[in-house]
Design brief:
Layout (H helix, E strand, L loop, with lengths): L10 H18 L5 E5 H7 L4 H4 L3 H8 L3 E4 L2 E4 L1 E7 L4 E6 L1 H8 L4 E2 L7
Antiparallel strand pairs: 1-5, 2-3, 2-6, 4-5
Helix pairs in contact: 1-4
């Protein structure tokens, strides 16, 4: 007997959920230039999908850092860099200053073209 199954994680859905959480975080903390999220919070954002919070997180972040905001210098990525700190169970995100200021002034976040990633 041979059982075949596949579980394809939806990286784009999780990237969208994470970016919308970041957008909400920026609205609540208008003076921030970076964010530190506990990975337990990310686990809840991903609807308790353990694989997405651990093994697949790097792939999800790769998509999330492709989200851009229109600035005076063209479209720029909102996430400048990120780091997963396994020792402290946290996700550290540094934001692009120009994109962050444009987002604060009301510019929308531009989603990446999924066919280009």
């Amino acid at each position: 007997m041979n059982l075949e199954y596949t579980h394809k994680p939806n990286y784009y859905l999780f990237a969208q959920l994470l970016v919308r959480h970041i957008e909400s975080y920026i609205q609540k903390h208008p003076d921030t230039n970076n964010a530190i999220f506990d990975l337990r919070d990310v686990y809840e954002i991903f609807r308790q999908d353990f694989a997405s919070t651990t093994t697949n997180l790097e792939g999800i972040l790769h998509i999330a850092d492709s989200y851009k905001v229109e600035t005076l210098n063209g479209d720029q990525a909102l996430i400048q860099k990120y780091q997963i700190d396994a020792k402290n169970n946290s996700l550290l995100i540094d934001f692009n200053t120009d994109a962050l200021n444009s987002l604060r002034s009301g510019k929308p976040i531009l989603e990446p073209d999924a066919s280009q990633l």
